[in-house]
Amino acid sequence: MEQQFISRITSSRKNVSGRFSAKSPSNIALVKYWGKRDPQIPTNSSISYTLTHSFTSTELRFVPKQSAGFDVKVFLDGELNEGFAPKIRTFFKRIANYCPFLEDFSFEVHTHNSFPHSSGIASSASGLSAMAICLVQLEQSLGGELLEEEQLKKASFLARLGSGSACRSVYHGLVEWGENSFMKGSSDLYATPYPPAEIHEVFKTFHDTILLIHEGQKSVSSTVGHNLMNNHPYADLRFQLANENLQKLLIILKSGDLAAFGELVEHEAMSLHAVMMMSSPAYILMQPNTVAVLHKIWEYRQQTGLHLFFTLDAGANVHLLYPSAEAEAIETFIDTELKGFCQNGNYIKDVVNFG
Ligand code: DP6
Known about the structure:
The chain is built from eight helices and 13 strands. The chain is of the alpha+beta class. The strands form three sheets. Strands 1, 4, 5, 6, 7, 8 and 9 form a seven-stranded mixed sheet that branches. Strands 11-12-10-13 form a four-stranded antiparallel sheet. Strand 11 and strand 12 form a beta hairpin. The chain binds ligand DP6. Ligand DP6 binds next to helix 4.
């Protein structure tokens, strides 16, 4: 299967310089990817919403070189960032088989996130997706002859090898990743956009307001967290439940059942954090204010009957999900009751992107 992604470039048009650019959105998983095996194969299927205003813009500049090995420098907002370079080199190593031209150039990656670096929002998904799209553009310019659909598929395939969730950031809307028996065309190797025709209108105009509860580095990285799922006593059950949840979610997405959506999505978020707490060694990424916000949301829902739900990623921040029709009332509640739980009162208002 991987064979299809090996570059078919035959010409030696390598003595060129140039630049390509791409912009990729962040995504937030509704059914979580948590657990993987080599090489970046997920242990269960996942599905995410792609966001609109939280994105990474990347420009890949390249000049020919003669020496062997990879040469890549990363600039964040115009400043050389030594911290990212090892990650990109590891990424290059993983994808070298599929992009045989990587050693032929010296690269500069110029990248900018629409959200502050310190916000705790992961930039690896949007960043590696944008990077992968640039590399596919480069391959095309060197004589690659991929059709548009194949280019996106290859970008998603490459992005996955950089960071699992990055493969979903190549597309808009709801995006699925992971092979299963109930979704035709699903794959462990790349993500697939979920057909809009299968999604009720109410889910296409969802808001995601991200409460920045704790800005800064998390205590346990996602990579370490995924590894802790190996030999985890509840791992198999978690993987099975995630796949079952995805299957249930597809029915909910079609029917427009908001209450069922919220129940399932919140259950997924809690399961993710529950398995973290039961890892060995155990760890907790929620902060006291994360927990306080969850209680507030449940209370508000009970009092108003409005459809305000939450999901969490691997950190302390809370993603508030709600339909457009209820945004006005809910956003007043966020400003008056939830903003105070955010570090420095910061939150990011975003909406789901259906392209
Ligand atoms: C909790 O994609 O960041 O956000 O593959 O090691 O780079 P690596 O991990 P990463 O994990 C994301 C985990 C998650 C859930 C999700 O996005 O599905």
